[in-house]
């Protein structure tokens, strides 16, 4: 037994010899010490152990919360021992890599695509397609090879942890992805990588899930709870062979509890994960959920990429210690990249890999790394953490050579701040402090050292190549090569791969194939995915209720419109219309799946990478989960519409109706999923959908019977699933129906004619037999549509085949496409003369700064200096079952010229407090006083403050420079010139070291700026505003490397010295960073204050406070980490006898702070300052806002090339198909009806347009919500900007649609008619855009908008007079809804414009033939009938076989439906009125509706 003293603890901890003692060759770090330090974490995980004992019968459930009897190491070790006794083998995989070289795409600067580019690419798409099959060197558009990693060699044994260090862009992520098998985004991966002796190809093919990569960004379903997220991962990784007494459910529950407690997020189990727009857990907690999900995979080779981003110092340390314990006990192989790793974290690692510009400049023992770089010739900085020092040695701007002299970099900017106001300061000091701040201490100037041709500076390696060459010749490299050879020999002798393979085989669940990468069977994967999808649907109740409400609403409205359809000839066509509407609504309701599926892709790719499930299982599982919801919704819909429309009322007919609709819905749902799977993005999918939906509607058999279709296109009818659904519905309804021939179907009829069909009359209904009053339904559909009722169940079977076929194709496609990983790329805007000059200047200044010849001068930046105070501040939010208090009676202040840190564990309420102080909260109750200079905040407060939020939300199509300028233009005072603002933006670009990315498009992670660059930009956008009152920053250094973080904080120190008041949350500050802050506000969970006061030199004031109250900080411990451990925010128990919040409330510091706040308020009244802040809500005039925002929105649309082109393509393809289908219509009555159908397709356009407009508007609104909270511009400005940006594309689309369809279909060519038709099409286009924006403005998400669309479109389509004419409508709807329907104006205007003066000539088959009474001529007999209803007799003088044509002119056609040629301009005016209404609704909704709850 060996005893090891825990650091900072008076108690000795005894460890088992076998577990504690690790050979130095395997663990160069003090693993024993790390385990001893982790004793506190073991104690906090008592419940996990207790639950285990409950499960094994060793302990009763009542005792499960006893904390004193738990030991984490013992728990994990005993679990491991139990598994060994049960014959369950462990998975141990060591990794070796030799001469690894990774090649990515580079050498080709990719420019932003613009609208003309999309058209050009489409025109040349055949050429591009051919080039894809050509060798890469023949393809000028292929990215040129660029080495990303070069010459990497190393070894990580089972049980070892490797820390990967490097500056952003050096290749850390590339290395981690390569080791964990994520190689698809690279052109080549050369060299040898072996896993327990298996080559990478074989290992990744069979055991892909055993090497897992945890990305830097957190990708989760926002509406799932934390517990549900982790349980899902565990359910797909439950081992088939478990302890004898352990069930699957018990395993999942036990491990879930263990992970939650290990990462200290048990309290979040039932809280939504959330995201940028859904309120949920904090950013740090979300990061821990990502870690837990990764741990749940059970992989034995794990790579964590910057996984401590967003974690506080104590939690990050606990996480590193957790990895240490798990790695040791389970012999895992762990790779971790961490920015700003503290010394405690660094000490957990065995080896460290340092990367510089894709070169391995060090790989070896972690304990020897610092001395290695010192011996290389770099100067040591004892106060700098080892990780930051190692990274700094690869940074030419940060490192110092040993020969450079004794000036200390550490002092630069650290203590050169304005002297903080002490609590005991006299009242007059406040005025002095508000008036001026001390300047920063001048940084020593450095001579620029230029490496020689060998990359050396005075013999010291100064380039990546030189450092890599130096390492290769070093003793450590030689020792590592020897260790690799020794390990390889051991692998050859012991063959650990056999044990690993058996362990993997043992872990497989029943039904899982031996050769499968997946741990559970395919059916188990499907079940898990389905269960999660059900949870997603049930927890998104708004969408669920909206979906059901829409279906019920459409059913009721359609049912009342077609109420009790008569079983007569008058109801024959109407009955078909009702069936068509029933099918169409439910079939294309499935289109709502498309945007949802596309947005879930990143999460799917991550989880497929973890091998949680096969992609095909995801496809089948989501389908299985959706089927019950769809079945129930369609059942409710069917019951309502079936009974109201008076369809044939037998159980057999109803269930056949229901079954046909639901199978058609499933087939179409599978079809849209297939579209989403095979297309790269939503715009391409929408483009295809528009094309295919239009074909399905045209060739459904309803608008054009199959025998009337053009011979070169009728084949579409036979491959159209909607055709089989509609025909089956018609057969089901009419097969047992007899229709009474009555009314207008009898020719001639009316006054003076028999009411029933006589020998001198004819029934015009298709299928009628001379002399018979009734027409068999089967005869009617056979004659009118060529439907044979005997084919009903054949067609139903074909629908099932379509459904299964689409689903199988979808499963195959998703398997193929999920294997395709797109490389991360940065897109640049093309340089013009201005940008080129600016970039050249930036590069010159960058070089000057490197030489020490340039220093930023920000004196005079802040023109208004006012203190900021808050008292008794509390915040309560509504939760399920009551209220929850997130902040409790917080007091504090921020003075001009000071930098105040806000710290606490993740979830303690730091971001919540910033949101409350910055006036960003939209829900909950805030109590207390927030004052500026002793007065309540005014309307100018939000624009006078800058708030750098934790989540990076930006306009994706803007470049870095454009985003900064946009902020400067709208948020800096209007009296500052544009030139001055532009110049300041260039300074911000320099400060944030974004010179190389100044013209880079922001995009999104993977297609634009990376996470680190986005964080810099977020800070820059706020700094560009030149805030005059306050600067709030929420974790500005998270995700940044140590030097970048130091630069940010040093700049904040300069801002404070210039008079800025700054409040900043910060995680994981090292001692050097921490000393830059003047004051600290420390919170504990529950939003309670633990400390507020000065920090002092070397944190002396802070540590004295804690020491005085029972927590003494050791000399060699970072105070920022210690204080969090002291208050119990980490894994360790609280130090001291009392709760620290109570200690603070009883302390003299608290009383002095309250007195200071009163003194500040009193003193503020006497301060005389220049009142340069005008008390207006916005910094700039309304017209300036409108111009700036509109120009940005138009530029955004121009750069979203696929969006504009998709709209154009949709219009063009629909017009083309309409033109080909109805090519050069004649003057027959059938052609008259087809002209109406051609016109009706103008009302189909809105369905296509709004499906594209809504996502654009809602995604733009997400950015607007962030910008509006900073009072950049008013709400109506956003709505107007969106509308104006759409107009050029609307005009173009209207022109293309009109030109392609109008003349090709043979419409009237007179200028007065053609001009009117174009004007109406243009207004319809604008109306569709404004309708889409109006719907988007009143809905919270794209999903809800997509659900509402079918309801509105069906509603408008029903009442416009095409499906059912105005005279046939029930009086209730005819009296108001017909008039209020916007499509009424569109359809009626175009119909009268086309039909007026059009002469009709029936074909021989269209004449109704009857015999007049003996002795009478045809005209004489039918004269009264013709004078009443119109039409003409083709043979008026005949005495038999009278040929009657229903219409003599187009005017007679529209006269019957109560529309008039004289009202056509009135109709277009009313239609424009509807456009105006949409615009007003959009502006009003944008002004008053807030969908982002915070």
**Largest sheet, if any?**
6 strands, mixed
Biggest β-sheet: strands ordered side by side in the sheet? 8-9-10-5-11-12
The number of helices is: 56
Radius of gyration: 37 Å
Quote the distance from N terminus to C terminus: 54 Å
Average pLDDT score = 83
Structure summary, number of beta strands? 33
Tell me roughly what share of residues is in helical segments: 40-55%
Low-pLDDT residue intervals, each spanning 5 or more residues? 1-70, 406-445
- Shape summary: elongated
Instruction: Tell me the fraction of residues in β-strands, as a range.
Output: 5-15%
In short:
The chain has 1494 residues and is an alpha/beta fold.
Please outline the helices and strands.
Elements: E1 2-5, E2 12-15, H1 17-20, H2 31-37, H3 39-44, H4 46-55, H5 72-85, E3 95-106, H6 115-123, H7 125-132, E4 144-156, E5 161-166, H8 172-179, E6 188-195, E7 198-199, H9 200-206, E8 211-214, H10 226-235, H11 248-262, H12 283-296, E9 301-305, H13 313-330, E10 333-337, H14 343-346, E11 351-356, E12 359-365, H15 366-376, H16 386-392, H17 428-435, E13 456-457, E14 460-461, H18 464-472, H19 475-494, H20 496-507, H21 522-539, H22 541-561, H23 572-589, H24 593-599, H25 601-609, H26 615-645, H27 651-678, H28 682-698, H29 715-718, H30 721-734, E15 738-740, E16 746-747, E17 762-763, E18 774-776, H31 777-785, H32 792-817, H33 833-850, E19 868-879, E20 882-894, E21 899-904, H34 910-917, E22 925-932, E23 935-936, H35 941-944, E24 945-948, H36 960-971, H37 978-991, E25 1003-1004, E26 1007-1008, H38 1011-1023, E27 1030-1034, H39 1042-1057, E28 1062-1065, H40 1071-1074, E29 1079-1084, E30 1088-1094, H41 1100-1108, H42 1119-1126, H43 1140-1145, H44 1148-1164, H45 1182-1199, H46 1201-1221, H47 1229-1240, H48 1245-1269, H49 1275-1301, H50 1311-1337, ...
Parallel strand pairs: 5-10, 5-11, 8-9, 9-10, 21-28, 21-29, 24-27, 27-28
Antiparallel strand pairs: 1-2, 3-4, 3-6, 6-7, 11-12, 13-14, 15-18, 16-17, 19-20, 19-22, 22-23, 25-26, 29-30, 31-33, 32-33
Helix pairs in contact: 4-11, 5-13, 6-46, 10-11, 10-12, 10-21, 11-12, 21-26, 22-23, 22-26, 22-51, 23-26, 23-27, 23-30, 23-51, 24-27, 26-27, 26-32, 27-28, 27-30, 27-32, 28-46, 30-31, 30-32, 36-37, 36-38, 45-49, 46-48, 46-49, 47-53, 48-50, 48-51, 49-50, 49-56, 50-53, 50-56, 53-56
């Amino acid at each position: 037994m060996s005893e090891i003293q825990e650091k900072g603890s008076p108690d000795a901890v005894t460890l088992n010899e076998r577990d504690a003692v690790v050979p130095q060759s395997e663990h160069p770090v003090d693993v024993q010490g790390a385990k001893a330090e982790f004793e506190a974490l073991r104690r906090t995980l008592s419940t996990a152990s207790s639950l285990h004992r409950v499960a094994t019968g060793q302990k009763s459930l009542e005792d499960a919360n006893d904390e004193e009897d738990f030991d984490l190491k013992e728990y994990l070790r005993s679990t491991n021992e139990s598994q060994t006794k049960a014959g369950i083998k462990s998975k141990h995989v060591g990794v070796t890599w030799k001469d690894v070289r990774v090649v990515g795409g580079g050498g080709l600067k990719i420019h932003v695509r613009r609208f003309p580019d999309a058209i050009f690419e489409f025109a040349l798409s055949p050429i591009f397609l051919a080039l894809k099959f050509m060798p890469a060197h023949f393809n000028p558009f292929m990215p040129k090879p660029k080495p990303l990693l070069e010459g990497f060699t190393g070894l990580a044994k089972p049980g070892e942890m490797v820390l990967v260090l490097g500056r952003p862009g050096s290749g850390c992520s590339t290395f981690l992805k390569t080791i964990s098998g994520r190689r698809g985004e690279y052109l080549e991966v050369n060299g040898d990588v072996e896993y327990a002796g298996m080559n990478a190809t074989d290992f990744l093919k069979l055991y892909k899930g055993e090497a897992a990569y945890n990305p830097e960004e957190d990708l989760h379903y926002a509406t799932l709870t934390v517990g549900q997220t982790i349980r899902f991962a565990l359910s797909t990784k439950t081992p088939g062979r478990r302890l004898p007494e352990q069930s699957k459910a018990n395993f999942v529950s036990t491990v879930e509890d263990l992970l939650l407690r290990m990462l200290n997020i048990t309290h979040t189990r039932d809280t939504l994960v959330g995201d940028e727009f859904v309120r949920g857990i904090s950013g740090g907690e979300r990061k821990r959920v990502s870690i837990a999900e990764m741990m749940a995979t059970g992989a034995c080779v794990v790579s964590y990429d910057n996984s401590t981003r967003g974690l506080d110092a104590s939690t990050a340390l606990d996480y590193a210690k957790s990895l240490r314990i798990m790695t040791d006990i389970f012999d895992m192989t762990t790779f971790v990249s961490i920015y700003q790793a503290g010394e405690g974290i660094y000490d957990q690692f065995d080896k460290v890999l340092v990367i510089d510009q894709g070169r391995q400049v060090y790989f070896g023992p972690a304990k020897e790394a610092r001395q290695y770089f010192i011996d290389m010739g770099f100067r040591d900085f004892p106060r700098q953490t080892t990780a930051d020092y190692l990274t700094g040695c690869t940074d030419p701007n940060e490192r110092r050579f040993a020969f450079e002299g004794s000036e200390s970099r550490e002092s630069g900017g650290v203590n050169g701040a304005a002297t903080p106001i002490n609590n005991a300061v006299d009242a007059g000091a406040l005025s002095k402090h508000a008036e001026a701040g001390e300047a920063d201490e001048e940084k020593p100037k450095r001579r620029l050292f230029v490496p020689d041709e060998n990359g050396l500076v005075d013999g010291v390696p100064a380039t990546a190549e030189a450092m890599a060459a130096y390492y290769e010749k070093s003793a450590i490299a030689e020792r590592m090569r020897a260790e690799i050879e020794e390990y390889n020999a051991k692998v050859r002798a012991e063959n650990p791969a056999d044990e690993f393979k058996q362990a993997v085989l043992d872990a497989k669940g029943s039904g899982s194939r031996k050769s499968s990468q997946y741990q559970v069977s395919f059916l188990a994967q499907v079940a898990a995915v389905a269960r999660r999808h059900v949870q997603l649907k049930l927890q998104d109740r708004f969408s669920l209720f909206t979906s059901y409400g829409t279906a019920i609403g459409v059913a009721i409205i359609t049912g009342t419109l077609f109420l009790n359809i008569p079983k007569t000839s008058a109801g024959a066509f109407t009955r078909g219309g009702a069936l068509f509407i029933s099918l169409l609504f439910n079939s294309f309701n499935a289109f709502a799946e498309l945007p949802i599926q596309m947005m879930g892709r990143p999460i799917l790719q991550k989880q497929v990478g973890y091998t949680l499930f096969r992609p095909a299982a995801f496809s089948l599982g989501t389908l299985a989960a959706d089927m019950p919801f769809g079945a129930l919704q369609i059942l409710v819909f069917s019951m309502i519409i079936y009974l109201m429309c008076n369809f044939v009322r037998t159980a057999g007919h109803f269930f056949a109706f229901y079954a046909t609709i639901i199978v058609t819905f499933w087939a179409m749902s599978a079809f849209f999923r297939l579209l989403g799977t095979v297309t790269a993005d939503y715009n391409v999918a929408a483009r295809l959908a528009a094309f295919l939906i239009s074909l399905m509607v045209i060739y459904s058999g309803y608008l054009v019977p199959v025998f009337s279709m053009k011979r070169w296109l009728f084949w579409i009818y036979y491959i159209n699933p909607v055709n089989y659904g509609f025909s089956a519905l018609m057969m089901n309804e009419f097969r047992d129906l007899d229709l009474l021939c009555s009314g207008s179907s009898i020719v001639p009829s009316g006054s003076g004619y028999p009411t029933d069909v006589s020998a001198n009359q004819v029934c015009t209904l298709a299928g009628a037999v001379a002399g018979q009053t009734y027409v068999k339904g089967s005869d009617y559909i056979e004659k009118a549509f060529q439907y044979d009722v005997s084919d009903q169940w054949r067609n139903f079977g074909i629908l099932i085949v379509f459904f299964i076929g689409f689903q199988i194709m979808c499963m195959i496609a998703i398997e193929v496409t999920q294997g395709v990983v797109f490389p991360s790329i940065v897109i640049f805007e093309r340089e013009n003369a201005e940008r080129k000059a600016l970039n050249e200047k930036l590069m010159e200044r960058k070089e000057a700064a490197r030489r020490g010849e340039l220093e930023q001068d920000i004196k005079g930046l802040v023109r208004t200096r006012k203190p900021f105070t808050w008292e008794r501040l509390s915040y309560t939010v509504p939760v399920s079952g009551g209220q929850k208090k997130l902040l409790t009676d917080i007091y504090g202040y921020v003075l001009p010229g000071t930098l105040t840190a806000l710290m606490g564990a993740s979830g303690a309420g730091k971001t919540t407090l910033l949101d409350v102080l910055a006036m960003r909260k939209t829900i909950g109750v805030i109590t207390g006083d927030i004052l500026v200079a002793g007065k309540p905040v005014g309307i100018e407060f939000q624009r006078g403050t800058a708030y750098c939020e934790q989540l990076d939300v930006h306009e994706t199509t803007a470049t870095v420079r454009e985003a900064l300028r946009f902020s400067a233009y709208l948020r800096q005072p209007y009296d500052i010139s544009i030139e001055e603002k532009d110049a300041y933006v260039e300074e911000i670009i320099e400060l944030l070291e974004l010179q190389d990315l100044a013209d880079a498009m922001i995009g999104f992670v993977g297609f634009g700026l990376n996470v680190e660059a986005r964080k810099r930009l977020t800070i820059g956008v706020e700094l560009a505003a030149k805030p005059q009152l306050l600067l709030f920053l929420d974790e500005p250094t998270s995700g940044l490397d140590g030097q970048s973080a130091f630069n940010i904080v040093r700049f904040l120190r300069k801002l404070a010295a210039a008079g800025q008041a700054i409040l900043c949350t910060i995680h994981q500050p090292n001692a050097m960073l921490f000393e830059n802050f003047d004051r600290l506000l420390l919170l504990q969970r529950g939003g309670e204050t633990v400390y507020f006061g000065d920090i002092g030199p070397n944190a002396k004031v802070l540590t004295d406070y804690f020491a005085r109250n029972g927590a003494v900080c050791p000399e060699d411990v970072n105070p920022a980490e210690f204080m969090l451990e002291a208050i119990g925010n980490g894994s360790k128990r609280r130090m001291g006898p009392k709760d620290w919040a109570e200690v603070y409330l009883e302390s003299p510091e608290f009383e002095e702070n309250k007195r200071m706040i009163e003194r500040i308020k009193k003193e503020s009244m006497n301060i005389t300052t220049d009142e340069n802040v005008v008390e207006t809500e916005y910094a700039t005039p309304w017209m300036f806002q409108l111009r700036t925002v509109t120009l940005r929105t138009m530029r955004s649309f121009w750069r979203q090339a696929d969006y504009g082109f998709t709209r154009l393509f949709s219009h063009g393809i629909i017009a083309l198909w309409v033109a080909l289908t109805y090519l050069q219509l004649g003057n027959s009555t059938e052609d008259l009806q087809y002209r109406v159908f051609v016109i009706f397709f103008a009302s189909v356009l809105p369905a296509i347009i709004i499906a594209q407009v809504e996502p654009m508007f809602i995604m733009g609104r997400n950015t607007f919500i962030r910008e509006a909270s900073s009072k950049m511009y008013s709400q109506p400005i956003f709505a107007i900007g969106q509308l104006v940006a759409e107009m050029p594309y609307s005009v173009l689309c209207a022109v293309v649609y009109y030109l392609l369809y109008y003349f090709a279909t043979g419409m009237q060519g007179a200028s007065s008619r053609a001009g009117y038709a174009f004007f109406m099409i243009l207004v319809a286009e604008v109306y569709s855009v404004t309708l889409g924006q109006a719907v988007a403005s009143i809905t919270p998400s794209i999903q809800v908008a997509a659900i509402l669309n079918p309801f509105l479109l069906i509603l408008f389509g029903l009442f416009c007079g095409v499906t059912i004419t105005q005279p046939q409508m029930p009086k209730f709807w005819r009296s108001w809804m017909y008039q209020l329907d916007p499509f009424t104006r569109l359809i009626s205007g175009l119909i009268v414009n086309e039909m007026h003066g059009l002469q009709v000539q029936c074909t021989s088959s269209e004449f109704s033939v009857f015999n007049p009474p003996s002795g009478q001529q045809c005209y004489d007999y039918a004269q009264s009938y013709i004078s009443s209803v119109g039409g003409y007799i083709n043979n008026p003088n005949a005495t038999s076989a009278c040929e009657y044509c229903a219409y003599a002119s187009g005017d007679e056609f529209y006269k019957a439906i109560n529309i008039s040629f004289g009202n056509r301009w009135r109709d277009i005016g009313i239609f424009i009125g509807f456009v105006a209404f949409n615009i007003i609704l959009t502006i009003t909704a944008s002004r008053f509706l807030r969908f982002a709850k915070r």
